[in-house]
Amino acid sequence: MEKSRDACRVRYFRDGKTARIGLLRRKPGGQWYFDYEPGDRDDEIGFRLGEECFRLGEYISVGREGAFVTYQVARVEKP
Predict the structure, then answer these.
(1) Residues 5, 64: Cα–Cα separation, whole Å
(2) Do 46 and 38 form a contact (C-beta atoms < 8 A)?
(3) What pLDDT, on the 0 to 100 scale, is given for residue 49?
(4) Of the four, 34, 48, 49, 79, which is 20 to 30 A from 59 by CA?
């Protein structure tokens, strides 16, 4: 992922519509997170994202404000 991180985007859907679009970023120390807007108030930390394969139908865990939620990968595209 790190080689093409500028091309790694995340799109968050709610009720079948795009709610927000962000970038996959890496914090010092190696933790991956989704960055939607400047600052860290809206950042979502990925659970072991560096070890994940983003494949259709796979699941990933994302945390915000101390709680993790599991999401299913719905779409994967090459830029």
Answers:
(1) 21
(2) no
(3) 81
(4) 79
